[in-house]
Amino acid sequence: MTAALRPSVSACPACAAAPAAEALADQGALDAAQIALSLPTIHCSACISKIERGLNAHPQVNSARVNLTLKRASIDAVPGVTAQDMVQLVEGLGYEAHELDAGTLSATSNDKAGRDLLMRLAVAGFASMNVMLLSVAVWSGAEAATRDLFHWISAAIALPTIAFAGQPFFRNAWAALSNRQLNMDVPITLAILLAIVTSLWETSLSGEHAYFDAALTLTFFLLAGRYLDHRTRAIARSAAQELSALEVPRAIRLENGTECEVMQADLKVGDAILVRPGGRMPVDGEIITGMSEIDRSLLTGETLPVLAQPGQAVSAGEVNLTGLLTIRATAVGADTSLHQMADLVAIAESGRSRYTSLADKAAKLYAPGVHILSGLSFIGWYLYSGDLRTALNIAAAVLIITCPCALGLAVPAVTTAASGRLFRRGMLIKDATALERLAQVDTVVFDKTGTLTAGTPELTNLGALPRPSLEIARALAQASSHPLARAIVQAAQEAGITAAQVDKITEVPGYGTEGLWQGKKVRLGRASWTGAEALAETATFLRVGETAPIAFTFADRLRDGAAEAVQALQESGKNVYLMSGDTTPAVEALADRLGITHWLAEALPADKSTRIQELAENGAHVLMVGDGLNDTAALAAAHVSISPASALDAARVASDIVLLGGDLSPIAAGCDTARTATRRIRENFRIATVYNLIAVPLAVAGLATPLIAALAMSTSSITVSLNALRLR
Predict the structure, then answer these.
(1) What is the DSSP string of 17-56?
(2) Residue 541 and residue 469: Cα distance in Å, rounded?
(3) Please, what is the average pLDDT of the chain?
């Protein structure tokens, strides 16, 4: 197997002649790459320190770094170390971990756009300051040759600066015009170019006025607004790419009874694939041999693992918990359910991208109006004076003074102020138009597991159980990784209950654990396995010898602020829905507990997305709140979406807003802030309109010198920014 994967070019000429080095390259071809793990449950610097110490303490790990923002670990290990080894190490430290395909993620890891905007902003700022100093000398009375010299120096600075710094506006304007459309960058580009052309003409004719300073200041202010807009959100990586990264990059294929580790892309329909406990299914398939339990929570939202046995179908992305399974692949690559979910997300993302922002709506009215006004000014003055130079100067003044800068800052200034306010409340705004869309919400859809609830079971009848039974149950539960077993261990630890002396403990995959206590067989597990009758609520059972089984009952713990968030949203007049892939009894019980009248149980990912689209078609503006892989399509399809920081990467990337803490209560307050922010944006547009009503007649009348134009433009921008700061 390794020969096919041998690099065609050695790392250096010496290695080509060294058989030992070639052997080492063969051995590490599959595993020498960087290992990336998703860590959805980390939340603070203590988590980072603990995981980094644990990983770096491993003798075969060269280095390991944890990123709290991305909830991701990057590990550089020696050849032979597998991602599953690292997953088990992190889980041993008490944290959930999932393998990611580092190669898929590398394409989305760099913020090139942000660095590009910042560089152009710095260049424009430096140039505008220098040209403004030269302009002060002109405004102070410099004449004749001195004035012309300052104008030519200003031109030498302004021309290359605007050619470089103004590219984002030029590209966007050209793209809009190529599609026979107008956006805010079209009048901006015309104002900048006309100011430069007019200034060069005036300078060549030894004229008094030049707009180099105004053009550079306009570019600087607009780049500042564009950069603020960019920084108010996390880098918008594609959720579909994140989902693809969650596909298992490697798998163990059985070839004539021999285990061979191969890349996921090499798997074919009909292959026999071995999935060890703790591993994720690399393909859709059917279980051939083995008994285990499958965790489907990230894909379907089911709270409890399901029994897995021969003949049962499994899906890519599901986690094998307890037993060794062999599956026969029925769908691979783009045909798997996980990949189809990624396709759903991509379709939903493209649909939501058709939202028209307030700035774009304003541009549709503003751009043609400004162009017509500037054109009429040019024609009117040319007919009146017969002087092309005078007419062109006034047309340029109209374009510069008609407030493209204030309009360019109207949205990002408010968005930045509102985002800061929400950030202090624990909400991170990722998308540029998320606030506008959040202000329109009238319907809120919640996922259940991991969103309204913590996603972990909690023992509810601890006080009613005899202490000897609790001690036996803790001893048996310690030998299992089942969620209910972990809940028993945690509850016993908090109550100070020690484990009994139970011998010969073994785990029976799919059923539970058993052992010997004082010569008696003891079992902890499923009702049918322990001889008990199943209950309507979630439960596991302990049987000691021939005595009647004892029930340990569980409930999914509510997330902090869940009840308050639902109540506040309902009181504000919004319709609240609960949609989950969990069982009908579990969903109905939670809906009754929170007072939610509209709910849907056992919903597949496509069902959630379809239901949200139906609500939208009926005129609803839907806010989706979810955390799992099964929610990603719905999150992308909703008008606006929120996910907790504990959500898996793919869900957080598909969302517009991330809740930084575990409390859901800020959601209602976030809706109120979004409505206030939208009002401020509209106020800024009105301020710009009033300003134009005053300034434009002056420009049309020929009274707007470059100094007046620059001062008026700056004043309008400062006014808009101060109005935005009222949000704080």
Answers:
(1) T-HHHHHHHHHHTTT-S-EEEE-TT--SHHHHHHHHHHHH
(2) 11
(3) 78
Residue-wise pLDDT tens digits, 22-32: 333 344 434 44
Q: Percentage of the chain surpassing pLDDT 70? A: 82
**Architecture in CATH of 25-100:** 2-Layer Sandwich (3.30)
What pLDDT band is residue 42 in, cutting at 50, 70 and 90?
confident
Which residues, in sequence order, are bridge partners of residue 543? 523
> For residue 41, what are the CA distances in angstroms to 285, 305, 526, 706?
29, 19, 28, 57
Q: Where are the domains of the chain?
A: 25-100, 248-333, 426-454+559-675, 456-557
Write phi, then psi, for 369 (nearest 5 degrees).
Answer: -60, -45
Is it the case that residue 599 has pLDDT exceeding 70?
A: yes
Q: Where do we find the tokens 């009754």?
A: 592
State the pLDDT confidence band at 649, using cuts at 50, 70 and 90: low
CA distance 201 to 196: 9
- The beta strand positions in 56-175, using DSSP E, are 61-67, 72-77, 98-100
Whether 447 is a known active-site residue: answer yes
Q: Which residue has the higher pLDDT, 47 or 717?
A: 47
Q: One of 148, 447, 556, 649 is an active-site residue; which one?
A: 447
**Contact yes or no for 206/145 (Cβ under 8 A):** no
For residue 24, give both structure tokens. 């080492």
Q: Which pLDDT tens digit goes with each residue over 661-700?
A: 678 888 988 898 889 888 888 888 888 778 777 878 888 8
With b meaning 16 or more CB within 10 Å and e meaning fewer, what string describes 270-303? ebbbbbebbbbbbbbbebeebbbbbbbbbbbbbb
CATH number of 426-454+559-675: 3.40.50.1000
Query: Distance of CA 178 to CAs 72, 190, 353, Å?
Result: 41, 15, 19
Q: Side by side, which strands form the sheet with 313-314?
A: 258-263, 250-255, 272-275, 325-331, 284-289, 313-314
* pLDDT tens readout for residues 188-225: 788 788 888 888 888 888 877 787 887 888 788 778 76
Query: What's the confidence (pLDDT) of residue 228?
Result: 67
**Sheet strand arrangement including 427-429:** 427-429, 657-659, 640-644, 622-625, 443-446, 575-579, 598-600
Structural fold of domain 248-333: 2.70.150
Segment 505-510 long-range contacts (CB within 8 Å, at least 24 positions apart): 505/475, 505/476, 505/479, 506/479, 507/322, 507/479, 507/480, 508/291, 509/277, 509/290, 509/291, 509/292, 509/293, 509/322, 509/323, 509/324, 510/291, 510/292, 510/293, 510/307, 510/308, 510/309, 510/322, 510/323
Q: How far apart are CA 301 and CA 482, in angstroms?
A: 16
End-to-end CA gap in the chain: 62
H/E segment holding residue 87: helix 83-92
- Of 361, 415, 452, 477, give the one whose Cα is nearest residue 674: 415
Residue 40 identity (one-letter amino acid): P
Report CA Rg, the chain: 32
Residue 509 has pLDDT above 50, yes or no: yes
Q: What is the pLDDT of residue 578?
A: 92
Note the CATH architecture for domain 456-557.
Answer: 3-Layer(aba) Sandwich (3.40)
Mean pLDDT along residues 250-255: 85
Burial of 545 (C-beta count, 10 Å sphere; 0-12/13-18/19+)? exposed
Cα–Cα distance measured from residue 395 to residue 508, given in angstroms and rounded to the nearest whole number? 84
Confidence of residue 6 (pLDDT cuts 50, 70, 90): very low
Residue 25: its pLDDT value, please?
A: 38
